[in-house]
Structure prediction request, 297 residues.
Amino acid sequence: MAALPAGMLASTASVAAPIDTAGRIDLHTHSHCSDGTLAPAALVELAVARSVGLLALTDHDTIAGCEQAHQACRELGIRFVAGVELSCRWHEHILHIVGLNIDPRQPQLASHCQRLSGLRRSRIEHIARRLSDAGLPGVRLAAPALNAPSPTRTHLARELCAQGFASSVPQAFERYLKHGGTEEADTPWPELSVAVECIVRAGGVAVLAHPHRYGLTAGGLRELAGQFRAAGGSAIEVSLAGMGAAAAARAAALARRFELAGSIGSDFHEPGVPWRALGRFAKLPDAITPITACLGL
Ligand code: AMP
Ligand code: MN
Ligand code: MN
Ligand code: MN
Prediction:
């Protein structure tokens, strides 16, 4: 199905196109409601252009974009999965749990996200003070983050680039924003079990996001996967854009061992990043229960 021009979205608000389920699946994406750059409707238009037929919006700690994305999916005839990517703590690690098929209007999920937005705000202020102490204009650098519904370090990284303190977002992270600052120790992120419970109570399926990015040993990953499963988690990301073959094989082994379904996605944030393109990643390996089974699809 061809994408409608952007301007047609508003004028076709009441027209639902037939659902196209034959396309690709992408169950991990971000909009400008967190640290993506596209509005939810623009994200959906790009998904349609990339032949994605089943799309989840999974912004960091906010469900603010779900309604707009859902509406755009209805208009453009692709299937939408309401989602969120909740930050939480497990031992000294900050983890991300993707929730799929959540009810974005469920009050406890909404208040959980509101609380996280407050935590994120204090954390960004804390980082801004640290940057000021290091001689940088911390307040000015933090302004775009503090104006966002879900303030993230990515906002700070982009501003560090815009103001000439780094030449790329990864460089800004490397120089100024890597985890381990006192602001992380001071941020009372909810425990893993709380994040999982929050997703499950909102009717969703909890997915352990990008297991390869936490710097855990094989034993640490097994301990995590076991505890995640025991807390009510159902799936693990096995095929993600930019995930190497070895990391994908480790995730697949965890999926089999702990009877978790395998989820797939790009973790798309913005156009023009070839290794994290919307709808583009390796196929889910055989012998893994596909996440679609948990979503009733
Ligand atoms: P936060 O949730 O505020 O800690 O921000 C985490 C987000 O920053 C992640 O979701 C990524 O989008 C981005 N990020 C983290 N580390 C890096 C990095 N080294 N280079 C580029 N982006 C990063
Ligand atoms: Mn992000
Ligand atoms: Mn993440
Ligand atoms: Mn993500």
User: Anything to note?
Assistant: The chain has two domains: 24-113+193-294, 114-186. The chain has a mean pLDDT of 91. The longest helix spans residues 107-133. The pocket of manganese (II) ion (ligand 4) is lined by residues 28, 30, 85, 267 (CB under 6 Å).
